């Protein structure tokens, strides 16, 4: 656990409030609205690592990040969000830092997709694949 201002970052999955995660992913973000509750719970259960951001004073979950990994050399960063009322405190940046720089995957090759947060991820070295070898197959149904 690490304290950042008035918030705590913690990777204990037992502490996460799945109701908050479900509500935010199903109503507030473009990439999660197509998932149902059962699917969100399944990806949570199967995650390699999760990190939550909590208000120190109340313990309320205000941010989240999830990753899946092969556990030895690469990981995919997913579902990073900060609730509206906690934005502006740098929590998105700290969630990414905690996930990719301060955890067991600090030496991994990290991947992600985003339609709107390129500036955030560039701060952590994300960019166009340097070797030109990265390929992706889009979802058959057009969902991201």
From TrEMBL:
<dbReference type="InterPro" id="IPR053144">
    <property type="entry name" value="Acetyltransferase_Butenolide"/>
</dbReference>
<dbReference type="InterPro" id="IPR016181">
    <property type="entry name" value="Acyl_CoA_acyltransferase"/>
</dbReference>
<dbReference type="Pfam" id="PF00583">
    <property type="entry name" value="Acetyltransf_1"/>
</dbReference>
<dbReference type="InterPro" id="IPR000182">
    <property type="entry name" value="GNAT_dom"/>
</dbReference>
<protein>
    <submittedName>
        <fullName>GNAT superfamily N-acetyltransferase</fullName>
    </submittedName>
</protein>
<feature type="domain" description="N-acetyltransferase">
    <location>
        <begin position="1"/>
        <end position="140"/>
    </location>
</feature>
């Amino acid at each position: 656990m690490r304290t950042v201002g008035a918030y705590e970052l913690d990777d204990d999955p037992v502490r996460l409030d799945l109701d908050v995660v479900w509500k935010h992913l199903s109503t507030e973000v473009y990439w999660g609205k197509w998932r149902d509750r059962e699917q969100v719970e399944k990806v949570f259960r199967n995650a390699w690592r999760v990190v939550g951001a909590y208000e120190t004073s109340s313990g309320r979950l205000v941010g989240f990040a999830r990753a899946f990994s092969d556990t030895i050399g690469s990981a995919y960063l997913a579902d990073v969000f900060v609730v509206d009322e906690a934005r502006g405190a740098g929590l998105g940046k700290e969630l990414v830092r905690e996930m990719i720089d301060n955890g067991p995957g600090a030496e991994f090759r990290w991947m992600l997709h985003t339609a709107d947060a390129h500036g955030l991820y560039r701060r952590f070295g994300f960019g166009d694949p340097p070797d030109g070898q990265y390929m992706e197959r889009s979802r058959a149904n057009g969902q991201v």
